Amino acid sequence: MLVTRQKVLRRFWYPVLPMSRLGDRPVPFRLLGQDIVLWRTADGSPAALTDRCPHRSATLSPGTVEDGAIVCPYHGWAFGRDGACLRLPQAHEPERNRPGRGATAHRCAERYGYAWVCLDEPLLDIPHIQEAEDPRFRQIHEFYEPWTAAGLRIMENSFDTAHFSFVHRGTFGIPDDPRPAPSTIEHAHWGFTMRSEAVVVNQGVSKEILRDTNERTVRRIEGRWHLPFFRASRIDYPNGITHVLCTGATPVDDRVSQIVQWVYRSDTEEDAPAEKVIAFDRAVTQEDQTVLETTTWDVPLSMGEELHMPADKPGLEMRRRLAALLAQHGEAEARLPAMA
Ligand code: FES
Ligand SMILES: [Fe+2]
User: Which ligand is nearest to the CA of 99?
Assistant: First the structure.
């Protein structure tokens, strides 16, 4: 599937930028191959336009922000969050101050400390994360970086309990027992919830942040996959600590996904410093990235092209749901031309 060619994927919300990176300058981003620009409006909320001035096509992102409007660097036209031209500095008469059409605006909203963008009429709301509203949890921002891997590969990896013994032997995988834990899947209109219970190795910094000296521990996993490329995976440990990994594999273009990851933790900074929580997740994430960046990015939705095993069920369900989504919206799956 070539994500930039599937129009229906423009109808989902994606986390594109931590609000902490949105200061007093516009910030460019590429979403599904579309260049956009984000900035902070007067009330502090984020806004997004196509990164192209409707006057003479200069990119807006090198411009400035004035009075909550984005100002084109070429002739200084200013645009509001709905794309309307609010100021045309060259106009001699104030009433001639507005050309007919403005810049192209996109839906943009702040949630969980991130700016989210949807390029077309949304099919679903921004994913609901119940732990975000629970005062017992703290939030830790972890990663914001591009990976050369398809969103579907990254998502299925997040629900794949069969790679722990190989990819994660340096962190939590049990090298000599590759049998994956059984799992169940419960479907929802927004995606699915996978439940599983996996025995994992507890070593190094993991012992510190779990405050558990045992060599092994058990992860009770409730992984929530949100169409198309977002997950919130809740891990409950036997000693009552909960760690919820929230990851967007936001599609930049067909080859690249922006990893946007944060976590919710049920413990305190004194129990487990954020720095150590991040260090453990960095090691795990790095292991995944290394292998995922070797995979192909035109991921087939049909079942016949790659081989599968029973433990691949979550990834197969993702393919099935995405294929059904395309079919419902009258789209054929776009693929690279077959090699001769
Ligand atoms: S190109 Fe943007 S104001 Fe002229
Ligand atoms: Fe992994």
Answer: 1
Dihedral angle at the C-alpha atoms of 200, 202, 204, 206, nearest 10 degrees? Answer: 90
The three-state DSSP-derived secondary structure of 20-49 is HHCCCCCEEEEECCEEEEEEECCCCCEEEE
Q: Is the CB of 53 under 6 A from ligand 1?
A: yes
Q: Do 26 and 156 belong together in one domain?
A: no
Position 282 in a domain: yes
Q: What is the pLDDT of residues 32-55, one digit of tens each?
A: 999 999 999 999 999 999 999 999
CATH number at residue 15: 2.102.10.10
Claim to verify: residue 183 and residue 283 sit in the same structural domain: yes
3-class secondary-structure state, position 150: coil
Q: Which of 118, 147, 171 is the last residue of a domain?
A: 118
Q: Atom 3, ligand 1: which residue's CA is nearest?
A: 75
Could you tell me if residue 225 is inside a domain? yes
Q: Do 217 and 314 belong to one domain?
A: yes
DSSP secondary structure code for residue 229 in this structure:
T
Largest CA distance in the chain: 78
pLDDT value at residue 101: 76
Number of domains in the chain: 2
Place of tokens 């949630």: 111
| Atom number, ligand 1, closest to the C-alpha of residue 75 | 3
Contacts 24+ apart (CB under 8 A), 268-275: 268/138, 269/138, 271/211, 272/208, 272/209, 272/210, 272/211, 274/140
pTM of the predicted protein model: 0.96
The whole domain housing 103 covers: 3-118
Backbone angles phi, psi at 247, to 5 degrees: -135, 125
Other CB atoms within 10 Å distance of the CB of residue 328: 10
Q: Can you tell me whether residue 324 is helix, strand or coil?
A: helix
